Amino acid sequence: MTGRVALVTGATGGMGRVITTELARLGFTVVVVCRSAAGGEEVVRHVAAHVPQALIEVLTGDLAERTDLHRVAAEFADRHPALHVLVNNAGAHFRDRRVNSDGVEMHVAVNHLAGFTLTALLLDRLRAGTPSRVVNVVSASMSDTRRMPILGKPRPVRLDALDDLRLVNPAAGFEPFEAYARAKLLTTMCGYVLADRLRDSGVTVNAVHPGLVATDIIADVAPRVAKPFLGLVQRTLLTPEEGARSALRLATDPALAGVTGRYFVREEEQRSPDVSYDPELRQRIWAASRKQTI
After folding, report:
1. Is 180 a catalytic residue?
2. pTM for the complete prediction?
3. Could you give the domains of the chain?
4. pLDDT tens, position by position, 183-215
């Protein structure tokens, strides 16, 4: 993989750091997008401790803000003529409703629009790097938004207000975990659209749920009744190293060359929620997302 370039978001978190480290170990020059320079420096130190020869570059920006995303993409394009792997790994969960400067709810801004925007702005670099791969890290919560899935029946994400993303996840009836899951569903559906548009171009686009990984998001979404048992529960979850394997496989496994427009749960291809296969809904979500990208 020497001479190839990867871009990773969410690199300061446990799974993102593993993805960054392992791509560097394979010989990629890895560009990480971090909110702060200090966070980026910590990632560089961590990777260098495991891969002394690592080539890591840091771009700083707020993934919730359109202007920062445009600047980050421009800075990347100035440095690199081609992009070979883009891992949209950044994810965030917010306990209360808040919006970015465009009025878009933050789950949608960070978990969907950040990756959507970077991918759109760097598409020329991805085409220049063919064969190249886009990996969107999503969540199986889009199939079931219950925080305690042992109770009741699965509750898939509902979709509405699809023509204006500023109206998605409104204040009325706001439920943080459902808002998070809805944003991941938007990413999955737009990934299908992009995969169709890029078919036979040499650029592949796939989505992956890495499994239940012991991350800050898991601790954040746990119901209050489960908090006393959180330590015990987290010991049953995947480690960041285990969770990163599925994204790394989609990014680098030669056996997956040419595979596109698919959804994986860990290393197994599965169906995403039925609504994600509705072609009209996909196009509406794509159009609404484009409005927030330009």
Report:
1. yes
2. 0.90
3. 5-291 (3.40.50.720)
4. 999 999 999 999 999 999 999 999 999 987 656
